[in-house]
Amino acid sequence: MKNEKIKNVSFRAKSRNLKKIPPRAHFVRLVGMTIGIFFIFYFLYLNFKTSVFLKEKDRINVVFYSQNSKLFSFSKKEVNYLIKFPAEIEILVPGGYGKYRVGALGKLVALERNPDLLKKTFSGATSTLVDLYFFPRKTEIYYNVFNDSNFPAIGEILLGKSNANTIDRLFLLFKFFNKNPVDYKIISLDKALFDQEQFHKDFQGNFYKKTYREIGENVQIIYTRSYSTALLFSQMIDGEGIRVVDLSQEKEVDKNCQVITKKLSLISQNIARYFNCKIRIGETTVSDIILKLGNLEKEWAVK
């Protein structure tokens, strides 16, 4: 009986202690949990909203920069491509940098603190638009080393620096989980001097987005200084499956790039979004869409 009384007294004491927790502490705890849940859902919302793989694109182009740099072009219904870039190949770097060895490109990115150079360089080199890029956290200059690996390591996908969000990293991890080289058409570049023009001619049409071809809209590109830069844009846009019908030079300099279209469309909005251009409704005579390069001429300048 005594033991039972002692237990009852002890239980009541604990109950009193629990009741003594001030309402303010409960409120603070509740607010903290609410804020934490809000940030988790907001993080997931942003990831789903900005995910490249959830946009239902016909083709997604991903670069893995490393000792053995690669560009993967994923398609749901068409051929998947894997383009291998040895470290010794020289390619043109947009922005007025001239030609660089692929193996030294990471050093340039680190010095300029501009990872988007990877996107611009491989987009220009392959005449298509790169969506995502990955590169090592540690900056190194690479030289040719024989390595027959076609696919990135798990660490490159999950831990490498990238413009990909968490959702896209998980999508890529899933894609490479059951990797099979047979699923890809492999293009190995083995020349010391990469011929960008020849690559464009040889593989024109391989990376087309079928949806763009079905829409059938065409583009006029207007530049002020550099025909070479305008031609680069023409090749990249054409490589997406969008026909470029004219390159025109104007004396009037536009500060920022513009996309002009008679009506908003998938193509006009995607071009504006990719190159970060203002889009506006206006008259077009030669084409369905006008791309006025403006500041892009300097940012993508080629010598």
TrEMBL record:
The alphabetized UniProt keywords are: Membrane, Transmembrane, Transmembrane helix
Q: Where are the transmembrane segments?
A: 26-45
Name the domain of life: Bacteria
Protein's name in the database: LytR/CpsA/Psr regulator C-terminal domain-containing protein
